[in-house]
Automatic annotation (TrEMBL):
It comes from the Bacteria. The keyword Kinase does not apply. This is Phosphatase PAP2 family protein. It comes from Streptomyces melanogenes. Residues 119-201 form the Phosphatidic acid phosphatase type 2/haloperoxidase domain. Keywords: Membrane, Transmembrane, Transmembrane helix. The chain crosses the membrane at residues 6-29, 88-106, 126-143, 150-170, 182-200. InterPro entries: PAP2/HPO (IPR000326), PAP2/HPO_sf (IPR036938). Pfam families: PAP2.
Amino acid sequence: MLPAPLRAWLGVTAVLAALVVVVLGVLYAGHSESGRVDRWFVEPTADSVRPPWRRVALALDFLGEPAGSLMLVGAVVTGCLLLRRPRAAVLVAAGVVMTVGTATLLKHVVGRTIHGDGNLSYPSGHTAFFTALALAVALLAVGRLGFGRAAGMSLLLGTALVAGAAMGWAEVALSAHYPTDAVGGWCTALAVVPATAWLVDRVADRLADAGRREHR
């Protein structure tokens, strides 16, 4: 799932993304209001978006909820299996689970809240989920199309940026997250998905080697 020409670049991207997640987490640990960077974008309020864009934001938000995300992941996994790409199907499922799990753990560690003590906000799980799913699909596309380093990284980062920006906008517009929460969620996916893809490749390759040895 990790094309050889992209491994080093994706590794660097993952490390840089992880650093951003850590730095923002330290800066906003225990905070309960928007920071200076957040106010560069918007002051989160319940009325920051109105129809018809509010319906678009609500639709995107639904895709990050349990019901919507299960439907979306199920459809993508089914598509991977129909294309006879079981490794990609595993990456989609594992990448999403690992990314959302990491985001959930970070929320409890950082402790940033919005609209009350019970609403942990950093990083945005919705943004992390949507970005992770988009990255997994983009990795499949890069592998099937045989893209080189420049085209492959452009597709991966472009896809991640569009997905993260779309879901991040929806979450900020609906006043569910601060802008830096969305950035943190986006970077969480950029850090976790390449690592998960590497792990899936290692496990799958070892299982394949073991299977070949048994049939000799």
